[in-house]
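Schema walk-through. Below, the input block comes first and the output block second. Nothing else is stored per chain. Lengths vary across the set, and this one has 53 residues.
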Amino acid sequence: MRTEIGRVTWPTRKETAVTTGLVFLMAAMAAIFFFVIDQVVRLAVRLVFAGGF
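--- output ---
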């Protein structure tokens, strides 16, 4: 086990910071994407049930 742990390549502080930043960026982009999709679906459902079509 100690030999295997010695073979592990640990990320640098910079690599960790960049990766963490990318994770937060992708999470924010996903949140915005799903918010927009939710609003479009909400509008479509309102139009259908209000007799807008």
